[in-house]
Write a structure and sequence with these properties.
The complex is a heterodimer of chains A (240) and B (469).
Chain A lengths: L1 E5 L3 H5 L2 H13 L2 E4 L9 H4 L4 H14 L7 E3 L2 H8 L1 H4 L4 H13 E3 H8 L8 E9 L2 H7 L3 H8 L2 E6 L14 H4 L1 H17 L4 E4 L2 H13 L5 E4 H5 L3
Parallel strand pairs in A: 1-2, 1-3, 3-4, 5-6, 5-7, 7-8
Helix pairs in contact in A: 5-9, 8-10, 12-13
Chain B lengths: L9 H8 L3 H25 L2 H17 L1 H14 L3 E5 L2 H14 L4 E4 L3 H5 L2 H7 L3 E4 L2 H8 L17 H12 L7 H18 L2 E4 L3 E3 L4 E6 L3 H7 L3 E7 L3 E2 L2 H16 L6 E5 L13 E7 L3 H4 L15 H5 L1 H6 L10 H12 L1 H4 L11 H5 L6 H14 L5 H14 L2 H18 L10 H7 L12 H7 L2
Parallel strand pairs in B: 1-10, 2-3, 2-4, 4-7, 5-8, 7-10
Antiparallel strand pairs in B: 5-6, 6-9
Classes of the chains: A alpha/beta (240), B alpha/beta (469).
Amino acid sequence: MQKVNLFVTCLCDTVKADVAKKTVQLLEQLNCEIIFPEKQGCCGQPAINSGYIESSKPAMKTLIKAFEINNYPIVTPAGSCAASIKNYPKYFASEPKWAARAQQIANRLFELTQFIVNELGIDNVGARLAGRAVYHPSCSLIRKLGVREEPLCLLANVQGLEMLAIENQETCCGFGGTFSIKMGEISSAMVKEKVQHISKVEPDFLICADVSCLMNIGGRISRENKPVKVMHIVDVLLSR
Amino acid sequence: MSMKTSSKNFQERIDVQMQNDVMLHTVAHAQGLMFENRQIAADKLGNWEQWREMGKDIRDHVLENLDYYLQQLSDNVKKNGGHVFFAQTAIEATDYIEKIIKEKKAKKIVKAKSMVTEEIGLNQMILRNGWQVVETDLGEYILQCDDYNAPSHIVVPALHKSRAQIREIFKDKAGYTGTDNPEEMTRFVREHLRHDFLEADIGITGCNFAVAESGSISLVTNEGNARLSTTLPKVHIAVMGMERIVPTFEELDIVISLLCRSAVGQALTGYITALTGPREDDNCDGPEEFHLVIVDNGRSDILGTKFQDILRCIRCAACINTCPAYRHIGGQAYGSIYPGPIGAVLSPLLGGYDDFKELPYACTLCKACHDVCPVKIPLSDLLLKHREKMADQKITPLAERAAVTVFNYVNARPILWNTSVKIGARIATGLIKKGKLPINIGPIKEWTNTRDLPNPDGESFRTWFKNRK
């Protein structure tokens, strides 16, 4: 049995706990034992991406320490939070010891689909879901983590699921963390266009491996009353 | 026009631009086309990543040895019989050019497209003196006819205009009576411009890259107007940003290969010109006098800083053609002649935070620009560095600083965080019903204007995890 630490992320811990619960469930089905290091907090993105890097360092150190309790891999169901932590080492350029510790954590950290496909070596989790789906490849997965094929490979092996291509598929949905409220109008225009492109192919499901994009696109889909079910990839992979 | 293109503030600018349906349509259409063509051209060349790496290395090498190459370039231009002027500021550059125009008693000046001449406000100086200046690049000509409407793109300055709008401009300002057929309108402009080329006393151009080894300047165009601007008038003045140098023609080949493909998806543009000094005794054409004005205007302040990578830029606009934020606000919303990702990094560096402090936030950090940049400028990282600098200098809003302080304090303390998460989950579950909150103010409103909130899943994950066994 493979022991795995879960990095839950603040969004999944507070409002989207089901995604985290299902992540635990899925990994357990794939023969993993889940550890939840309780001293973990948020990756710090809201502050870091607003430029408050210096004042975010104590929280970064807390997170590093939280995961130093063992040496097992760390898995998270959110690409953007994974990418954020993987950037820690460069912020500690002036503190080499912390940079090294941050690097250790970064090396052990995997986004969920990346972990399942590349580390566990599984590309078919035995899921079944009938319908037509659009997958939104989040910027964090494809451009920051380089995770492009892994989720697609898992989805291709979901029985009954038909994947649809949309216009400008790899374009950002407009979330961008604090961008979504700081530049509300631009963010809104971006998500409106994204939903327009999704709606054009009339899918049953919208799937993404990032909770934050789902919150954004899903929030717009809900506002427009579109008959599209918004699903985190873990939801899909647990469907039977 | 100088670098700043509007006296309105950022919010006012985006409010106006986001209502401009014609612009939004032309930008979306052009982005699609240019993105696709760029990709095809890159794929056709093959080994694109290696080409990008070479481009990056060449530009980095030049920046690391800029003093040497500036000296070499300057020596060689003089050896070829040209004049070199190094302008530390925009004013020094325009003063020098003003002096030449006066000396030559010139009345008419033709100009080929050049962003740096926009940056230094060259046209304002010329017009102030009552001389006539004619923009000969078709895009720039359109904007000049339209009372110097601001450019919205660094390669395609009139990108925001539709054919129908261009026809109206020509009709009102140049006596055009034809249709909005592009070929017909272009023919009309060509006929007009022919007289200007023949009458002009001075031709002013930019410089895509200067070749240090030979003291040549190169110009990349699709219309041939730069050739006429540099061969017919008796005096040619080229204006360049101080970093736009390559060591030899070997490197020029590589950066031009990257530029043409990245900018317009062409293997080569219609005209690629290398000019080496004024006309020689046995030449039948070319200018009698050549001046190279090398502009610093804040660039040397960027050298050696964490922003140095931005000086690698070869002005192809691939980042602009890819940017989803640019797509929805257009170039004029940036309030700078340099829009899009490149502009959001460069404008605050050259023009300061007073005028351009919002630009680094007009970005989701999606990194699409980073992937297409032919010289691998980490644009989103540099935008983040701007945000960091502004946070450090405390020019960010007070409320934001206070919120971040509280957030970071709690996030660094596991016991406090643990409690906050549990309470937060309970409050969210209690308050958000069917994607709506009872109150919609401030930041929440920015979200709920167009989107529902996520429906919370009940207790926090950590509560569930602790109680499950």
